[in-house]
Design goal:
By secondary structure, the chain is an alpha+beta fold. The chain is 21% helix and 33% strand.
């Protein structure tokens, strides 16, 4: 998948820094900023990509978040179908 396809699937970008430093004004500044994407289907069910720094040739993949053994998908259509299946199966709480 490409980064563009990850965005089309509705994934949100999360930026982070492994470290930071104090600049001349006394402000903490991120040293190295990297990012990844995530998509929450519901509480406890999420998808996540690896970090941009780990991607080469714009070949992204999606993992099911926080599983004992990695569950990984490489194809846009498969991830799209999986997201559609999971979101259509969600039982929404009844609002009074």
């Amino acid at each position: 998948m490409t980064e563009r396809e990850i965005k089309l699937l509705g994934f949100e970008r999360s930026d982070y820094s492994d470290s930071s430093y104090l600049d001349d004004n006394g402000t903490w500044v991120p040293d190295t900023v990297d990012y990844y994407y995530h998509l929450d289907i519901c509480k406890g069910m999420s998808f996540i990509t690896s970090c941009k720094s780990e991607i080469s040739d714009d070949k992204w993949y999606v993992d099911v978040f926080n599983t004992e053994h990695p569950i990984r998908f490489y194809e846009f259509a498969i991830v799209q179908a999986l997201i559609n299946q999971l979101t259509s199966a969600l039982i929404k709480p009844f609002n009074k």
